[in-house]
Amino acid sequence: MSKLKLTDVEWGEFFIGGSNGLFDITSTKSGIDKNKLNNEVGFIPYITRTDMQNGINMFITDKQNNRYNIDEGNVITIGLDTQTVFYQPTAFYTGQNIQVLRNKNLNKYTAMFIIPSIKIQMQKFNWGGNGATLGRLNRTRLVLPVDSQGQPNWQFMEDYIKQEQNQQAQKIIDYYERKLVELAGDVVGLDKVEWKTFRFTDVFQEIQRGKRLTKANQTNGPKPYISSTSENNGVDAFIGNNTGVRKFEDVLTLANSGSVGSTFYQQFEFVASDHVTALKSENADKYAYLFLSTVVKRLEEKYSFNREINDTRIKREKIILPADKQGNPDFQYMSDFVKKLELDKVQEVLEYIYIYIYIYIRMMTILEEKVCEISWKDFWIEDVCEIKSGIRLTKANQEIGLRPFVGASDSDNGVTAFVSNTNKSLDANVLGVNYNGSVVENFYHPYEAIFSDDVKRLKWKDEIYGNKYTYLFLKQMILSQKIKYAYGYKFNGERMKRQKIMLPVAETGLPDYDYMKSYMQKQELEQIFKILNYLNKENTHV
Question: Are residues 400 and 410 in the same domain?
């Protein structure tokens, strides 16, 4: 399935409302003043003209005065005066001055497509004499995709939003997969470690205040300017100043005045104001810094606007930290502890998103249903892939290092050693296929590695389509030929070139890379869902 593009369709203009308009626009059926509400907590959204939380001010009971009728869901609401626009999926009550837009073709996907266009048009209205009245809304035009009859292309809008959501879902999944691997491990609780008092100067080797830079002298740019605010990680502005300033990176920032004691970890380069002190530790990583920030932040209990943290006071300060067996700050423990906290949060998030993943899978079942409709074709491997040889590297010549060395193995993703050697087989984003040893076994290698002479490297000739999903699809197609080969009948270069494999084919007659990618994404998500579902059940039983 090819990626949908906004340029794939024709576009046309439509009035939002009116006799020939896109929507039936009516005032809300409820319109309850807040002081007339039954404020008993319930499950019905109360929509107002706020620009936050989808317009929801609170959740109320359905036991309201009979003169107010509840509004049905699957509509778009527009708050007059404030020009706020939201999709309401369920029944709701509203405050005053809410317009409701209805169309039988509306759903959450088409609404998400249309709402940005409505918001753009709402910018010409304002509070007071030029508000979004019913008459003005009816005369407002939207530009939308159209079908062959010149009518709104509702199906395209829905499919496009689903596509974008799916891509975002995959990004989330990829992120949390990486986090789970990165943060895996265990660590003892805070009550199980030794604690000790340390001077600031024992923990932070560099303690330096920023430099004064007035707003009048600030120029616009991409560099964060950290001041003594307690919000936005201390970021007060983004500036372009490069001279007459002090820059830092990978430090803690401590507010000396203003929001005294506010402490944040700054991973990237920034400019510090003279109201901020940068604290640098040679032994701290990101996670240890986050641990330290919570301890340092407790200085706000000791200092205030009238008693600032000056340079002398900072250097005299002491903090209590976990200590190692040598009596030094235990930075490794601090790092591991915060990693564990993050992992716990990741797992909590995953318990929520696994449901969304399930929905995602259901949305993609059409791919599975269409598998029989996809055209398939035989391809010589040499016609679709570039085949490269590895280079012999004996154990005696291997030097220990961090670079994967891929041999003719059927386990550990084909990695048989980690070396510091390099040679002309150095490659990445390829499929490593064994022609010797565990013949035909093959693995995808997104990382840089060097390859044994028993392993061939396969790369799509259409290199732009080379990603883990298309290569994993190719992996299975090649594995289906495993029965033909053995140690005594090797899958050598010539045989590999003339081996036919079945691949889905596009209308162009070329391999349908988009289908391969989508199909493998679905298979991956199904497995992730099974794992998350299992973990969720296990956690429920604990």
Answer: yes
